[in-house]
Amino acid sequence: MNLTLHEARVIACLLEKEVTTPDQYPLSLNSLTMACNQKSSRDPVLAMTEAETQVCIDALMKRRLVTDQTGFGSRVVKYKHRFCNTEFSDLQFNSAQFAIICLLLLRGPQTPGELKSRSGRLHLFHDVGEVDKTLHSLTLTEPALVKQLAREPGRRDSRFIGLFSDEALQASESNIACTPTSARSIAAPESEPVSEDQSLAQADLVARVTTLEREVAQLKEALQDFLN
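The structure corresponding to this sequence follows.
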């Protein structure tokens, strides 16, 4: 499976919203585009148009990775993934593997520590060791779904990347290669884990942002239904 950067973002957002906002899933074109362009929990931050999102959806539907549906009494088409964990999917993940794959698609290469700190709304890892075990299981699949990158100078831990997009993999390796050796050698070490209070504050902020995004999407869909 080889996805473009935009296709990977579409799949990742459908995976994420299926778990974090199940009451809003499947997603309309408008909601999916907003999720793709979300400024938090995304790397890189994109500015996709609805037309670009639709092109990705159409391509993914041809590959049977996305399907559409229309709700009773509504003409708004909504979309859901068939990427994994459905009867039509070749990929079947447990909750931990699902979270790791989703995060790697959303945010690119990450260390086990980063994955643990960012996974709370998808799956609760009790320690970094659990993340390591999950990553290891995803490197042993045939074909491998995750790859460990060479440790960069100045970093304490190696990062891992998903192997669903050659475009994303090449961009990541190019970024590492193009970084001057001197700059990499003096890079600050990875920050220590945040405190429990900081983690709770961050989680609360993310929850508030998600709620606001959901309410805006609901208002836009209601307006779209009214205009139709």
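The domain at 5-89+204-227 is CATH 1.10.10.10 (Arc Repressor Mutant, subunit A).
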